[in-house]
Write a sequence for this structure.
């Protein structure tokens, strides 16, 4: 029996079109726009000026505060301006615009191909290197990794969990990374274990990636304390709390962190970025992005420099198909639809999914027939139909009691609803209002 | 170009299930029962079912169009399901006019006055059926004997249902073992060869429908299993206490509307609870009330009343019986 989380979940069509497409290096674009905020927390403060020449890997904006992250240039070139750029959320964010010339890297980066397995840095040095290198969680949440690697005194991490689930349909960037850079991912895991002072790490991989599963399992025999686990294919298997439950049978309580049950979870992409930062001294300025869609000529996986506009990625995958109705940054369950291909690639972007026009329009909204499917698919045992009604009627105190803030917005309820009701839209509205209420109450 | 792209919040994909497909699934699950009722009751089954379905659909269309002035709703198929279920709760020789009145009560009073699909607190088909039972008790309890197409719609030979024979017999002091010889065998009952309302007689056909709906994930096992289980347990206890006074559990499960009720009526989405724990309590409530009415009440049959009574508790159950929250047990590390 494969491990899985017990309550709820859905089975969207997997559509992993690019599962066999080896990662290619996307050519460096002529121009990039690198946002100063590619992470959760305060935007970084620019440390360069218009007209400056920067090298690939050079620090261009430094973290502002503890929950923030450094930003490095992904290209070498001249800073043409510091202005705003529309990013995936639809909002404009300050960014540095660089006109690219060649690809000159800073000298401190080790560009040799060989894999360095021996970890020389101490725990503290590893955390420091993650801070310097601007490492954030690459699973999508982009939470600065050093915060998760710093265990408060009196607390203990018992097991590190490496998330290789990739339960979003279409996306294959983590899959390819595990397959092609498995050794680096496992060294990265060892580094994370050292930083957290744990002797046990579990790598979770959904069983729809048998090649990655057997590859990493084989490699892991040479790494002390690392075990690789196949998990049942079910969305959202890769959600942090669900993955912890599936692997360790521990439930992270409402409003608490994985560390409260003795676990820390990092994505395989993050483990790879940590490897590069610690062993190769390479800051985080490129990542794997899946560019996919049923109508694309050459869907694929690409190593992409941050700040590259989406249009370049889509060109590399064969150009924008005529029937494109929606462009999603991220996966189709939790990603964000964008209205322009000028949006730059950021650290947290795992994929670009193009949906044809007929799949991009929502269903007509019909009355709720109270079939209870939303209740049975909710992985957090919430009652989406009720939360929607409460939000619709502005009954926010009641919504708070019904645990609306527990919702992680996985979208299973809206996905399953036979009446096409926009459950998650209303739950988001209610959740943000309730969170605001709670903040105001705490201020008093 | 940008104005050609759709932008909306996630999720960006949707499952294949729709209200219409679910209702078609229920209709498909009811087909074996429809076929057996035609086999056993001939023309009567065809006439009553057609009248019921057509008038339910027509009433919903007219009310939606001319009174509520809302977009049409009959294409979701729920009126067809109500029509079929109402017909299955009627004897096959009931006059057409009464069927139309029952359909009107089901759709106009029990469903549309509350705002249509999704808003009615009581199962529409059962409201129609109980209204007819109380208003036209003679016509509603004259049950044609299964004769297929050998007799016509109007001239069907009628007889009592096994439940009524046993109820009548016990109250006049007869023993179960003697009464059992006057009614069809358990095996005949399983195939549906007995008097009764059109859709309740054939256990086999109903169970095929149940298996299909479970397989197709239209319903979960919680309600049917808890209704059937609680009837079985309660009647087994009574039977063990005094087998000459109380009928055996298999008899109770195969007669009357237990299976039709448990599989198709109690599982009605709109009028059943939302959480699985509540579904089980709801199902057990139906089972227990059914047996109480059958064994201790005036009516030989109590499934309809039991479901309607438990329907009334659904809002209360939805407020107080919640799914078990994720992450309640804190294991401190």
């Amino acid at each position: 029996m494969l491990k899985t989380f017990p309550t709820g979940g859905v089975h969207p069509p997997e559509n992993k079109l690019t599962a066999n497409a080896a990662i290619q290096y996307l050519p460096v674009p002529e121009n990039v726009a690198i946002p100063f905020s590619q992470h959760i927390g305060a935007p970084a403060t620019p440390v360069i000026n218009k007209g400056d020449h920067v090298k690939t890997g050079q620090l261009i904006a430094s973290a502002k505060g503890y929950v923030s992250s450094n930003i490095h240039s992904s290209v070498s070139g001249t800073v043409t301006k510091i202005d705003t750029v529309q990013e995936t959320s639809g909002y404009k964010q300050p960014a540095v615009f660089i006109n690219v010339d060649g690809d000159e890297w800073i000298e401190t980066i080790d560009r040799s191909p060989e894999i360095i397995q021996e970890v020389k840095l101490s725990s503290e040095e590893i955390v420091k290197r993650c801070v310097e290198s601007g490492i954030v969680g690459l699973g999508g949440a982009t939470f600065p990794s050093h915060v998760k690697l710093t265990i408060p005194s009196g607390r203990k991490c018992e097991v590190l969990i490496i998330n290789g689930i990739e339960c979003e349909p279409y996306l294959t960037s983590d899959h390819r990374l595990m397959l092609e850079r498995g050794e680096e991912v496992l060294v990265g895991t060892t580094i994370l274990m050292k930083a957290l002072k744990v002797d046990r790490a579990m790598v979770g991989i959904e069983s729809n990636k048998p090649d990655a599963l057997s590859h990493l399992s084989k490699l892991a025999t040479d790494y002390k304390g690392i075990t690789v686990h196949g998990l049942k294919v079910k969305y959202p298997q890769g959600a942090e709390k669900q993955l912890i439950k599936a692997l360790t049978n521990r439930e992270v309580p409402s409003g608490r962190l994985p560390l409260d049950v003795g676990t820390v979870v990092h994505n395989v992409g993050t483990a790879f970025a940590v490897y590069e930062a610690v062993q190769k001294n390479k800051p985080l300025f490129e990542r794997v992005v899946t560019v996919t869609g049923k109508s694309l000529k050459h869907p694929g996986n690409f190593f992409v420099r941050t700040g590259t506009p989406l249009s370049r990625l889509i060109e590399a995958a064969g150009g924008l198909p005529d029937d494109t109705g929606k462009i999603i940054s991220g996966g189709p369950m939790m990603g964000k639809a964008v209205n322009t291909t000028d949006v730059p690639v950021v650290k947290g972007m795992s994929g670009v999914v193009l949906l044809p026009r007929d799949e991009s329009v929502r269903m007509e909204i019909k009355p709720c027939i109270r079939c209870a499917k939303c209740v049975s698919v909710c992985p957090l045992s919430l009652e989406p139909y009720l939360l929607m009604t409460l939000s619709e009627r502005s009954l926010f105190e009641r919504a708070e009691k019904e645990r609306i803030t527990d919702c992680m917005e996985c979208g299973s309820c809206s996905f399953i609803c036979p009446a096409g009701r926009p459950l998650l839209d209303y739950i988001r509205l209610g959740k943000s209002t309730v969170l605001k209420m709670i903040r105001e109450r705490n201020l008093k | 170009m940008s104005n050609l792209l759709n932008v909306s919040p996630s999720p960006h994909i949707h499952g294949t299930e729709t209200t219409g497909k679910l209702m078609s699934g229920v209709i498909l699950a009811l087909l074996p029962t429809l076929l057996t009722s035609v086999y056993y009751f001939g023309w009567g089954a065809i006439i009553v079912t057609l009248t019921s379905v057509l008038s339910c659909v027509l009433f919903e269309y007219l009310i939606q169009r001319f009174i509520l002035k809302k977009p049409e709703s009959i294409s979701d198929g729920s009126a067809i399901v109500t029509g079929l279920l109402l017909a299955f709760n009627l004897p096959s020789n009931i006059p057409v006019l009464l069927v139309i009145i029952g359909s009107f009560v089901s759709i106009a009073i029990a469903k549309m006055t509350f705002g249509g699909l999704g808003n009615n607190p009581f199962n529409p088909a059962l409201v129609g059926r109980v209204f007819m039972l109380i208003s036209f008790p003679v016509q509603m309890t004259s049950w044609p004997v299964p004769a297929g197409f050998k007799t016509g719609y109007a001239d069907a030979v009628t007889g009592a249902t096994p439940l009524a024979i046993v109820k009548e017999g016990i109250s006049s002091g007869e023993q179960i073992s003697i009464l059992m010889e006057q009614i069809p065998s358990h095996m005949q009952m399983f195939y549906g060869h007995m008097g009764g309302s059109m859709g309740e007689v054939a256990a086999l056909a109903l169970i095929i429908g149940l298996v299909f709906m479970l397989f197709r994930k239209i319903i979960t096992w919680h309600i049917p299993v808890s209704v059937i289980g609680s009837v079985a347990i309660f009647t087994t206890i009574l039977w063990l206490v005094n087998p000459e006074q109380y009928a055996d559990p298999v008899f109770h499960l195969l007669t009357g509307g237990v299976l039709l009720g448990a599989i198709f009526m109690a599982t009605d989405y709109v009028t059943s609870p939302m959480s699985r724990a509540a579904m089980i309590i709801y199902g057990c409530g139906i089972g227990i009330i059914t047996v109480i009415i059958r064994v201790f009440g005036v009516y030989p049959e109590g499934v309809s009343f039991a479901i309607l009574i438990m329907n009334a508790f659904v809002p209360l159950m939805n407020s107080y019986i919640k799914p078990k929250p994720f992450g309640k047990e804190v294991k401190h590390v």
Q: What stands out?
A: Chain B touches chain A through 47 residues (CB under 8 Å). Strands of chain B lie at 143-144, 158-159.
